[in-house]
Amino acid sequence: MSDNTAIEGTGNNDERDGAASGEVENALDHAKSAPEDRGVNGPLDESEANAVRPYVDLGGVKILPREGLHLRLEVEEGSKRVVAVALDYAGSTLQVQPFAAPRTTGLWNEIRSQITEQIQKQGGSTKEVDGPFGPELLAEIPTVQAGGDGSMRIARFIGVDGPRWFLRGVVAGKGAVDAEAAAQVEDLFRGVVVVRGSTPMPPRDLIPLHIPKSAAGQTAPPREPGE
């Protein structure tokens, strides 16, 4: 009797250990991912930003103008909705998108695995590395060209979980391969302010973006994604 009880007890412990392990993995997947100094050095929430700084207001994000920065808006072909902000700076392009997120959990840890899966399906590859904002992906992505010469482009996928929002950045150009250029783009990403707003939104929904009301000389005409 005692032997059987011991065996049954061991099995229950294994089940409990397995369940506990699954709970830990699930907690890690949904934990917020952000640098410890995010609330001071950015990316900032609107409530944390200096209200008197001359930001360009694009709705879901605000961008601080700087010399040499060229701002473009990417527009969805069918709906004509602004879906991303592209910042050309220091030989690099930084594409940013703000998304709604839960109050207490994050999105980046889960989204990284989805990005990896998507790129692999395209015939590319990714490598997870530790960056200044936490975990990020260094990706090799097949270029889409007539004739398909098999060339690859390098891109960095970075992400930060904030209060009720998630900010994703995609770095291309020098900032994906050169340390000095990367530092300049990282500073640009830290300078983004996210405006979540008080409107209820499902997690992962894009926080609405719009053309600035007055940004003469700071923006180029909106373009379709992929142009």
Overview of the structural elements:
This protein is of the alpha+beta class and 227 residues long. The protein folds into 2 domains: 1-30; 38-194, Protein Transport Mog1p, Chain A (3-Layer(aba) Sandwich), CATH 3.40.1000. The protein is 26% helix and 30% strand. It has a 7-stranded antiparallel sheet. The model is unreliable at 1-11, 16-25 and 215-221 (pLDDT under 50).
Q: Could you give a short description of this structure?
A:
26% of the residues lie in helices and 30% in strands. It has helices spanning 2-30, 38-41, 108-121, 179-190, and strands at residues 44-45, 56-57, 61-63, 70-75, 82-89, 92-100, 125-131, 134-142, 152-162, 165-173, 193-194.
- Helicity, in percent? 25-40%
What is the alpha-carbon Rg in Å? 21 Å
What structural class do helix, strand and pairing data support?
A: alpha+beta
Name the poorly predicted regions: 1-11, 16-25, 215-221
Overall number of structural domains: 2
CATH fold title of the largest domain? Protein Transport Mog1p, Chain A
* Succession of helices and strands: HHEEEEEEHEEEEHE
Tell me how many strands there are: 11
| Count of helix runs | 4
Global outline: globular
Strand content: 25-35%
Strand order of the largest sheet: 4-5-6-10-9-8-7
The appropriate CATH architecture of the largest domain is 3-Layer(aba) Sandwich
Distance between the termini: 74 Å
Question: What average pLDDT do the residues reach?
Answer: 85
Q: What would CATH call the class of the largest domain? A: Alpha Beta
Largest sheet: 7 strands, antiparallel
List the main descriptive attributes of the protein structure presented here.
disordered N terminus; four-stranded mixed beta sheet; 11 strands; 227 residues; 2 domains; single chain; seven-stranded antiparallel beta sheet; alpha+beta; Protein Transport Mog1p, Chain A; globular
